[in-house]
Amino acid sequence: MITRKVHCLQGNMTVPGDKSISHRSIMLASISQGKSVITGFLRGEDCLSTIECFRGLGVQITDNGDEIIVEGKGINGLQEPKDILNAGNSGTTMRLMSGILAGQDFLSIMTGDDSLRSRPMARIASPLKEMGAKIDGRCNGKSAPLVIRGGNLKGIEYRLPVASAQVKSAVILAGLYADGTTTIEEPVPSRDHTERMVKAFGGNIKREGNKITVEKQELYGQTVRVPGDISSAAFFMVAAAAKENSHLRIKNVGLNPTRTGIIDVLKEMGADIKLENLNTSGGEEIGDIIIKGGKLKGATIGGEIIPRLIDEIPIIVVAAALAEGTTLITGAEELKHKESNRILTVVEELTKLGIKIEELSDGMMIHGPNIIKGGTVNSYGDHRIAMALAICGLFSEGPVKIENSECIAVSFPNFEETLRKIIF
Ligand SMILES: O=C(O)C1=C[C@@H](OP(=O)(O)O)[C@@H](O)[C@H](O)C1
Ligand SMILES: C=C(OP(=O)(O)O)C(=O)O
Asked: Quick one: which residues bind phosphoenolpyruvate (predicted)?
């Protein structure tokens, strides 16, 4: 993919369905009683991996082009897979599914691509083993392929060592199968789509402070309307905010407060952002995001906001590169465990474009404003890095050529087409 300098971004647009919510809709629908109908589902590679994995567990899932229809099997209706389940590039698929598979009285083997097989899995294996599941994997059980023989779980009290919605969700989902009460305490609130969706599927789950409790129960099929993904909208928000004369409306975006750190940070950086048509759907806040272009200034980003914008950090760094002054990002070590080591890949690739950026052990320091040169850069197969680099091209002196950009299909299949429609 090659991107070039543009004058401004203008128009009304939508982004594809929220990835986190799309995954969860398939998972909860599959273990619910009765049929579920999902609209706005993200047909990105990651969520399609989740569909394939549940088909492998005997769930009938059809896509009529408009809706995804899931014939729920009930809490104990999944079947032993005849073959290895493949989560592809998707950490959410592997980690959340492990929670469900830990509850099944059969053997499952789960693998993924090179990136996923190098991401840490002990973080889910450890609490799930404590609940009674047998889990093994490469590297002493720390890496996929994972082999899970589940069943006979008991509730535990678990304090998450890191703020991770994937680990939290794995334990919640296993808790739906466990005798007694499962209590999870998170150090800092992370995205709470699993908790909200368990409730929307008729389930009982409680939160007090940072503690969540859940018990064994049945769930019931629902209609789910997936909102637009704020993590996908973020690329356009930053581009429009940093480009004078821009005026963009991104319609029907998920605005769950555990996901809106990007809005808070861009406002702090001086961006002109407004929200309109605020509403709720299926227990999730939604609305339109309106961005006008202007000048940005540097910001200090760290602490409790980090889980609320973790996937947006690569594009926030692009905003910081264009902003006047220094931006400091700390407390973001988790970036090292994503599809690539996002601290390293962001620093290396943005440096190639002439951006002044320093690597820190838990984040980055960016000195702005920068004149972005053109050049050839690499996404290292990481969709968020590829899209962040593509946005750099809209501001750079020469064209930016992104190698390995096909990975964008993981979360945003029509990214390039969507971008072309709003640039002038
Ligand atoms: O639960 C989820 O849907 C996700 C949680 C986050 O990961 P962690 O739980 O590892 O922080 C995020 O980075 C990922 O893109 C999606
Ligand atoms: C980290 C991400 O996803 P996952 O962990 O599901 O691979 C992401 O989409 O940025």
From this structure: 19, 91, 119, 166, 342, 384
- What is the C-alpha to C-alpha distance for residues 310 and 259, in angstroms, rounded to an integer? 9
Interval 290-310: pLDDT, tens = 999 999 999 999 999 999 999
Rounded CA separation 340/345 (Å): 7
Pocket test for ligand 1, best of 166, 336, 343 (most atoms within 8 A of CB): 166
**Alpha carbon of 341 to ligand 1 centroid (Å):** 14
Q: How far apart are CA 380 and CA 370, in angstroms?
A: 23
User: What is the average pLDDT across 281-289?
Assistant: 95
Residue 282 predicted with pLDDT over 90: no
CB burial of 303-331 (b: ≥16 within 10 Å; e: otherwise) equals: eebbbbbbbbbbbbbbbbbbbeebbbbbb
Cα separation of 82 and 108, whole Å? 9
Calpha distance 234→225 (Å, rounded):
21
Q: What is the pLDDT of residue 175?
A: 98
Active-site residue identified among 113, 311, 362, 382: 311
| Alpha-carbon distances of 319 from 117, 239, 409, rounded to whole Å | 31, 8, 23
192 is catalytic: no
DSSP 8-state class, residue 405 = G
Q: What is the distance between the alpha carbons of residues 292 and 273, in angstroms, rounded to a whole number?
A: 7
Please give the backbone phi and psi of residue 298, each rounded to the nearest 5 degrees, phi first. Answer: -65, 160
**Residue 90 · residue 116 · CB < 8 Å:** yes
Query: What span, in angstroms and rounded, lies between the C-alpha atoms of 388 and 376?
Result: 14
pLDDT at 376: 98
